[in-house]
């Protein structure tokens, strides 16, 4: 098993956030267990050597979901599901990804301002073409 990309982490992160206030350190092992990650994968660092890849991807998953109003940050380093996030979970969806987040006008505005897709169709096309598997920080490190 490879380390899941940040989009595959969105649903498990939101599920855990719906249980109550969390920190990345609180959820990383539970998510790693859910995906059957090895100890080596759990400890693998970004090329910069400053952060574990899994932790980085969890941070990006929660960041993007916060821009869509699904997660809130009640204190520094902490996150929790919003009512909108809990409502979305109640629909028993199979996946959360950028294309789904594009349904939220606030997220679309954020994404457009970041030089990304401007519509749901653009997000779907972008997702299909590149799978948006890496986080922005990973793309910077790779460059």
From TrEMBL:
It holds the Pfam family Mrr_N. InterPro entries: Mrr-like_N_dom (IPR025745). Residues 6-90 form the Restriction system protein Mrr-like N-terminal domain. This is Restriction system protein Mrr-like N-terminal domain-containing protein. It comes from Sinorhizobium kummerowiae.
């Amino acid at each position: 098993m490879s380390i899941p990309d940040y989009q595959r982490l969105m649903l498990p992160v939101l599920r855990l956030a719906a249980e109550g206030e969390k920190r990345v350190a609180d959820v990383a092992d539970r998510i790693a267990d859910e995906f059957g990650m090895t100890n080596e994968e759990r400890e693998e660092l970004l090329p910069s050597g400053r952060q574990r890849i899994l932790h980085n991807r969890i941070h990006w998953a929660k960041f993007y979901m916060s821009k869509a109003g699904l997660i809130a940050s009640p204190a520094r380093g902490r996150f929790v599901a919003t009512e909108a996030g809990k409502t979305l979970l109640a629909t028993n969806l199979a996946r959360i990804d950028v294309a789904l987040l594009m349904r939220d006008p606030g997220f679309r505005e954020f994404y457009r301002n970041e030089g990304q897709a401007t519509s749901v169709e653009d997000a779907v096309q972008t997702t299909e073409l590149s799978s948006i598997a890496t986080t922005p920080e990973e793309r910077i490190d790779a460059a």
